[in-house]
Amino acid sequence: MNSTLPDQLVSLATIKYLGYDDETASQIWNKWIAQAPEADPVPEIIPIYQFELTFMDYIVGYSYGHGHRYDPELNANDDDDAKWYDCMDRCGINKDTQGAIMDPVFKRTRLTEACVFWIRNTIELRYEALKSSIQEASRDSLEGSASHDTSREGADARFDSETLRMTPWVSQDTAMSEAALCATNAPGSLTLYKGMDRSRLTRLYDSNGNLDDGRALSSRPPTDFDGRTSAFCFAADRDVAIEYAAFIKRRSDRTPVVIVHATFKKSTIESLSKNEMQRLYWPSSEWKRLVFFSRRMKRLPPDLKKFNQVSLIIGNASARPSLAYVNMGCHTEITENMVLKNAAGRNAIQYAFLNDEGEELFEKAELKVFPITTAEFSRWYREAQAES
């Protein structure tokens, strides 16, 4: 990525920073300013009939078909790298961004979603990080602070300083610290993990540090075990969560990332009845069928409706995106390489908390948010490269 950030959010430089090549960025910019009312600076929001169109939505929308080169049928979703590069070329994504998305260190995580998903996600991450940086520079200017350092080194220093600062909801201990590692092995407890960008957590706690809106930790449908409503999906393997967070950092180096620990008393989970909790593992037919129908957002057949009633499903995680299941004819086409693996090569396990009862169960967890510093990411990345 560029070593210097754009100094204006709504600009041609921003579109290039977000990941588009020069030609595509110019096309997007020219179409935006042609629609925008004459103003200086160019507005971030423009009225379209009875609606408002944001600069961010317009940029993302281009990769979804507003550009003349993209064909939805060519959205890559398997392990054929050539299809991924072709898809990104058609969307006008620059080579640097393509390299970040296709980094072989993150192939396991990349293949859990389709190509256009990662394009959109990368653009959104970079936009939020850029917006925060520009807002910070504006505050510094108003407060008479020293000039805002937009170099990579300056951004990294500010990020590490901010993540280590005491707040009501971010731990002073970092994700790779001894304290964080020890927190995974507390006697009589079960800890689950989720890697994510920190900005998603701004509404998780109130000003007093109390849990306010747990939906910040939920996953949108379709998920492996619920095709129509959001679910709280957490990994039992910490390395899976760390790799996901690191992939965010690899694609958007100025985005702060965290690992969320959700720790339950083992008795809380073990006391659940079969009507409240179900376990599903590869290669059972029930696992294949539930994932197949859920990922396709289809109504469950009668013999699977019991899974609509439970609060928690513990089972193997899918390694492929919803699009892969949509393109299938039958659940029998699911193979073992469609099961996510952990770092040890074993089938990864997830805990999915479903419906209102599942949310209430999830709220019994003690949550801790551990930031990953730039130095920790760099060290993890070097080790991962050496192993790959």
Set out the fold topology:
Elements: H1 12-18, H2 22-35, E1 45-48, E2 51-54, H3 55-66, H4 81-90, H5 95-101, H6 107-110, H7 115-142, H8 152-163, H9 178-182, E3 189-197, E4 232-235, H10 238-251, E5 257-265, H11 266-270, E6 277-280, H12 285-295, E7 312-316, H13 322-326, E8 349-353, H14 355-362, E9 366-372, H15 374-387
Parallel strand pairs: 6-7
Antiparallel strand pairs: 1-2, 3-5, 4-8, 5-9, 7-8
Helix content: 40-55%
Show unreliable segments: none
Overall strand count? 9
Q: Which strand order spans the largest sheet, edge to edge or round the barrel?
A: 4-8-7-6
- Report how far apart the termini are: 23 Å
Rg from Cα: 22 Å
Return the domain count. 2
Shape: globular
What is the overall pLDDT average? 90
Order of helices and strands: HHEEHHHHHHHEEHEHEHEHEHEH
Strand coverage percent: 5-15%
* Biggest β-sheet description: 4 strands, mixed
What is the tally of helical segments? 15
Q: What structural category do the secondary elements indicate?
A: alpha+beta
Region (Disordered): 139-158
Biased composition (Basic and acidic residues): 149-158
Structure description:
It is a single chain. With 388 residues, the chain is an alpha+beta fold. It folds into two domains: 12-150, no CATH class; 162-387. It contains 15 helices and nine strands. The protein has helices at 12-18, 22-35, 55-66, 81-90, 95-101, 107-110, 115-142, 152-163, 178-182, 238-251, 266-270, 285-295, 322-326, 355-362, 374-387; strands spanning 45-48, 51-54, 189-197, 232-235, 257-265, 277-280, 312-316, 349-353, 366-372. The strands form three sheets. A four-stranded mixed β-sheet has the order 4-8-7-6. α1 packs across α2. The two termini are 23 Å apart. Residues 139-158 are annotated as: Disordered. Residues 149-158 have a biased composition (Basic and acidic residues).
